[in-house]
Amino acid sequence: MYGRTIALFASALLSAAASAGGPLYPPVGLDMSAADPTTRPGDDFFQYSNGAWLDRTAIPADQPFITEAQRVRDETEAQIHGIIDAAAADATHQPTTLAGKVGAFYRSFMNDARREALGLRPLAPQLAAIRGSRTRAQLANLMGRSMAGFGGSLFAITIDADLKNTTRYAVYLSQSGLSLPDRDYYLDPQFAREKAGLRDYAARLLTLARWPAPQANANAILALESRIAAASWTKAQQRDLPRVYNPYTPAALQAFAPGFAWAEFLRGAGLERKLRVIVAEQSAFPQLAQIYADTSLDTLRAWLAYRTLDSAAPYLDRAFADARFAFRDQLLLGIKARPERWKEGVKAVSGGDCLAGGACFGTLDWAVGQLYTGRYFPAATKASIQALAAELIAAYRRRIEHLAWMGPATRAEALRKLDTYVVKVGYPDKPRDYSGLVVRDDDIVGNVQRAAAADWHFLEGRSDGPVDTSDWFMTPQTMDAYNGSLRDIVFPAAILQAPYFDIAADPAVNYGSIGSTIGHELTHGFDDQGRTLDASGALRDWWTAADADAFRQRAATLGAQYASYEPVAGLHIKPDLTMGENLADLGGLAIALDAYHASLHGKEAPVIDGLSGDQRFFRAYAQSWRGKGRDDYIRQLTTSDPHAYRKFRVNGVVRNIEAWYDAFRVQPGDQLYVEPDKRARIW
User: Fold this and answer.
1) Domain ranges of the chain
2) I need a surface site. Which of 77, 364, 389, 504 has the fewest CB within 10 A?
3) How far is residue 219's CA from residue 206's CA, in Å, rounded to a whole number?
4) Superfamily of the domain at 123-316
5) Would you say 231 and 263 are in contact if contact means Cβ atoms under 8 Å apart?
6) Using one digit for the tens of pLDDT, what is the confidence trace for 583-618?
7) Is 611 helix (H, G, I), strand (E, B) or coil?
């Protein structure tokens, strides 16, 4: 349906443009000036498609990277800034309307004079509670409370659909407690600079807070977190869904990991009545609990004070905010300069990408999403994306039906699962209720705390009820998409704009960009994690042994390719960490190409600007990932993020798709050439 609509619309554009003597398509498709004609497509397709753009584009001083998505994100941020600024101009001291609360929140963040005058006083009650704790049980209670505000904990709590009973919610417990991006930062000597930076940062915050013996306590904090890191699972281990589903009663958990006061921890989080929790990193829990029991109360208090100060620093006076920026943005990400003040304010109110220096909780993100989509998200886009997703699902169905390596029993289960997926576009059908939230225009720390508490109480309050299948976990203004635990694929409003999607664009470009994203999210339901969940979303092995073995062998072929990629000198991609995203990238692009071909209804795609339809499709995909980052950012991404660095999300995928070889005449001897029998063919 979508393809026919696009084709008819494109035909009208072609006729109009031809009669006027103008270009065949408006400038919402490929950026023809981005390519590097001196690079052979078969040697480096990312560089071939984006090299001129990479040469002329500088990374902003206040960012760790520059990407096509960042440009769109900046435009969205400017739109949101206009909405928030107007709301702030009209806001009262303690407003009752949604827009008024957004405006008052922003005003409270931007009131630097007020923040400087208050200093550390807004955080005094929490620091006093930490100082006054005389037992480990009291500190465990405070760690539980940190789920709803500032603070830290050796363990994190998530409330999500139960993977063994997907109609109900479950409480999940997982390892936590690290300030650096990953356990490798503590255990690998190449990150010695970052470890030293953490020690200095902790000392600086404790000094500003007048905590006793700040340097000695900072040394103890680094030693504590290093022990936590050694006991923690790797991120690759955490991706094994059957291994991270371990139900316990609270009493059984206390017996299993006796060094931590679990009852007090759950009481602090408001979960004292729960009769069942699910432990993720099972073998790590007794070790982490023992570390907690063996650590002195003085060190535990200093660590919790430091983590509280760290999470609150963006909202305190300039000395705290500068210290956090110097560590989390400059040292860890290589950022050179602080963002403009209004950008920090917009992120504080609307949420962000949760980069190290960003506000990650205690925002009015869903409220901003309502205001943003009400003004900037056209209804026609929602219908178009839903239709396009239906085409991608149909293309995926055809692929599953014709997989030579999959047997009939597994195939039937796979098709059944595919049919259950729900496509959510733009924004949630149910808006979040902010009527009970108090926001004051002179109380940024209080606003953040109350907003964080409201978010947590929303999750905790519904945890005894049935799962809300209409729920969203990503706000409309987020420049991303996801495949959720509710068998849904979700596309927020922000990503549904040019160049990722535009109704006026060449269809090949739409399929290569947003089409591949839709295919990516669909494939997540069948990647190395998603394939362990059945058509109801439950954790169940629905594969025959032969089919599971065939899948693993094919995935291993892809993994071996990615293990050879080196984004920065001396640091290779971890295939076991990135496997899910790599599988989704490969499957998503292949499915999108099939859907594009089907949309042509047997006709040849037009040649535009000297490029065939397939050439435009693949170049659109490569341009959607164009960007570059600072080395420190790439090191952090490669160490701890399940996504491969963007260059390899292009080169690592296209070299496994036969149509790419045909489109660009890639031959043996080209650097990306892979022998046909060694290409990864999965979905």
Assistant:
1) 123-316
2) 504
3) 12
4) Neutral endopeptidase , domain2 (1.10.1380.10)
5) no
6) 999 999 999 999 999 999 999 999 999 999 999 999
7) strand
